[in-house]
Amino acid sequence: MHKTFDVAVDAMIEDLRTLVENESPSRDLDALVASAKAVAAVIESRLGGQAVLVESEAGPHVHWSAGDDPKVLILGHHDTVFPLGTLERRPFMVEDGHATGPGVFDMLGGLVQAVHGLATLDDLSGVEILVTADEEVGSRSSRALIEERALACGAVLVLEGAADGGALKTGRKGCGTFQVSIAGRASHAGLEPAAGVNALIEAAHQVLDIAALGRPEIGTTVTPTVASAGTLDNVVPAEATVIVDVRVESAGEKDRIESAFAALAPHLDEAEIAVQGAIGRPPMPESASAELFAVAQQLLPDLEGKAVGGGSDGNFTAALGVPTLDGLGAVGGGAHADHEYLVIEAMAERANLVAGLVNAIRVSRR
């Protein structure tokens, strides 16, 4: 890196402990209020100014601005996938070079690193931070705010955890969920099986049709993940539901898949089908990251980039044409799992990387 800044790792660990110990499961509004206040307090204590809580139906988002003409948005989220009480069986710990606890990697560690990196800069003009409350559940309440601030700033640094080996995430698939609901007609499975319309059999046909939509050779995966049907073993099922995970790499595939789901038709006479869902996060092509990734490699020449299958709020900003670089958060692994961890040794370097990128972006946009 051309220049490094003095980042106190011990202070980062203490701030990380504070955030982890304010559990923040998505959709738990009371917990998210407490978490947002904790995030705001960390930002204010390290950077000064006022972090504003932006109320929403999903919980408070946290917005901080250094003022002046906005030039770069630091984007993260404070909600996690872990239910209240996870901390009791998996408390925050520092051991063998790792920090562990719910949310350390996804993505509380990245938030802390970024704030401490920014704190080393003499001038924060043009910097904004947005930490949302609903990324893990689709960003429905925060998307408009994310897009507004991204367009205003003109460059976005996303604090999701790094890819394997500390690589930045230079591309992401678009992703979405579809629910196919099937209505049939119940009847006695022994006395009058033919009088019914078996929603489970219709669901089986639909699962095969849906799975055939995948084109893995070009990055499109269509994966039925959850199915339910029936009530009793002697009743022809009147209802069935199939839930499907979809990932695509291009806007063309997004359109094809959404059209295909809209065109699903029943195989059985008198069966009915209703489809809900969409590919809510558009693809983030590697071209959206190319400019900022080149800057990152000037700062850390050995840094690698990787396209990944998961989505983030960076998908939204990249789709607007705003230069977006993702995976700038913690180095570690185990997102959404009990073995989630953060590599402490990498914290200072990642904090410095964010600071260096912010400086470079502001210089380029003078």
Protein model, in words:
With 366 residues, this protein is of the alpha/beta class. The chain folds into two domains: 9-172 and 284-364, 3-Layer(aba) Sandwich (Aminopeptidase); 174-281, 2-Layer Sandwich (Alpha-Beta Plaits), CATH 3.30.70. It has helices at residues 9-20, 29-47, 86-89, 104-119, 143-153, 199-211, 251-262, 290-299, 314-319, 347-364; strands at residues 51-54, 61-65, 72-77, 93-95, 98-100, 127-132, 156-158, 168-172, 174-183, 221-229, 239-248, 272-281, 305-308, 324-325, 332-333, 341-343. The radius of gyration is 23 Å and the shape is elongated. The mean pLDDT is 97.
Relevant terms:
single chain, alpha/beta, Aminopeptidase, 2 domains, 6-stranded mixed sheet, 4-stranded antiparallel sheet
Strand tally is 16
Order of helices and strands: HHEEEHEEHEHEEEHEEHEHEHEEEH
CATH second-level architecture of the largest domain: 3-Layer(aba) Sandwich
Question: CATH-wise, what's the superfamily of the largest domain?
Answer: Zn peptidases
Q: What is the terminal-to-terminal distance? A: 22 Å
> Segments where pLDDT lies below 50 for 5+ residues?
none
Assign an overall shape.
elongated
